[in-house]
Design a protein that fits this description.
Belongs to the queuine tRNA-ribosyltransferase family. This protein has 376 residues and is an alpha/beta fold. Helices cover 42% and strands 19% of the residues. Helix 6 crosses helix 7 and helix 11 runs antiparallel to helix 14. The protein is globular and about 60 Å long. It binds zinc ion.
Length: 376
């Protein structure tokens, strides 16, 4: 893996990252395909057309349903879903802590019941690495605990210390798996995850500890889980500078276009979020002049595309009025067109962000973009 920073504009950075599955340009937005598909009937051919650079799949979901061993039989996720560009898999940690029932955390890992069929599953750092190795993703995420945003200091301290010990175990196991003969991707990368709730000194000391462990990239987890936007920006302000600048910086699960613009300004260059696909499935579409709800009656006779000038597959051919009709009739095409437009909007914004950073006018770009989105 080669990560090379092409430009800084104050703290905002734009880089290229070479992987075994091709080169990507940052800042970038990873399009979320939970169970190896973007919800809304979006295919991997569509992803190429709408400018997706990295697809993200969920380890927990693929493990509990269909199973990673079956996917390994297909030659890994890339072959299984027909995608030849980078894939990031999360560690399963976030879903274990947010979805699974009756979980019990021990030093070795977590016992929990599947949210699908209730069967008992154990997942620790080694199991998470083994599952992600079977999936053969380009980038694996370390297994961590995501403590509740408003947990007590004592709980967060104990949890973060365990997450650091788990990171060392993830690294050891990943090295072992990458050296095995039948491993799908022997150059699988491993990103660490910084935790610490919204407590500055825990975030900073954890960032310093994991920075010394020489991972391929560094994520900030446990944000966008109930704290305010101001608290999230503050944590980025105090934490990012303690993570290695010469490695990818990934803010997990964030967020709105404005959240992304603000985080880029604070040195983040990898993002993922379910908002564009989830909102699209509900007929909520992003534009440079704010979000529209296509269910609204005022779009009934609207012959304009979702956004004038947008070259996505929805806007090239279809009107707001037609898409509204599809949504009201519960036709799958309505959801699909909205999801395609929204992902295209995010991917295009990331491309504009890269250009603005490389041309040294990021602040001006960001301020204009936010102003037009808020003015509506
Ligand atoms: Zn469009």
């Amino acid at each position: 893996m080669k990560y090379e920073i092409k430009a800084f504009d104050k703290k905002a950075k734009s880089a290229t990252m070479e992987t075994v599955h091709g080169t990507v340009e940052t800042p970038l937005f990873m399009n979320v395909g939970t169970v190896a598909a973007i919800k809304g009937a979006v295919s991997t051919d569509d992803l190429k057309e709408i400018g997706c650079q990295v697809e993200l799949s969920n380890t927990y979901h693929l493990h509990v349903r269909t199973g990673d061993k079956l996917i390994k039989e297909f030659g890994g996720l890339h072959e299984f879903m027909h995608w030849d560009r980078p894939i990031l898999t999360d560690s399963g940690g976030f879903q274990v802590f947010s979805l699974a029932k009756l979980r019990k955390i021990k030093e070795e890992g977590v016992n929990f019941n599947s949210h699908i069929d209730g069967r008992k599953i154990f997942m620790g750092p080694e199991e998470s690495m083994q599952i992600q190795s079977n999936l053969g993703s380009t980038i694996a995420m370390a297994f961590d605990e995501c403590p509740p945003a408003l947990a007590e200091r004592k709980y967060i301290e104990t949890s973060v210390a365990r997450t650091t010990r788990w990171l060392q175990r993830c690294k050891t196991e990943m090295d072992r798996l990458n050296s095995l003969e039948d491993t799908v991707n022997k150059e699988q990368l491993l990103f660490a995850i910084n935790q610490g709730g919204i407590i500055d000194d825990i975030r900073i000391s954890h960032a310093k500890d994991i920075s010394e462990m020489n991972l391929d990239g560094y994520a900030i987890g446990g944000l966008a889980v109930g704290e305010s936007h101001e608290e999230m920006y503050h944590i980025l302000d105090v934490t990012v500078e303690h993570l290695p600048q010469n490695k990818p910086t990934y803010l997990m699960g964030v967020g709105t276009p404005i959240n992304i613009l603000e985080a880029v300004d604070r040195g983040v260059d990898f993002f993922d979020c379910v908002y564009p696909s989830r909102n699209g499935r509900h007929g909520h579409v992003y534009t440079n002049h704010g979000k529209l709800n296509l269910f609204n009656k005022k779009f009934e006779l609207d012959k304009r595309p979702i956004e004038e000038g947008c070259t996505c597959p929805a806007c090239r051919s279809y009107s707001r009025g037609y898409i509204r009709h599809l949504l009201k009739a519960n036709e799958m095409l309505g959801m699909r067109l909205c999801v395609l437009h929204n992902l295209y909007f995010y991917n295009t914004m990331m491309s504009e962000i890269r250009t603005a950073i490389r041309e040294g006018r990021y602040t001006e770009y960001k301020n204009n973009k936010i102003r037009t989105m808020l003015e509506g």
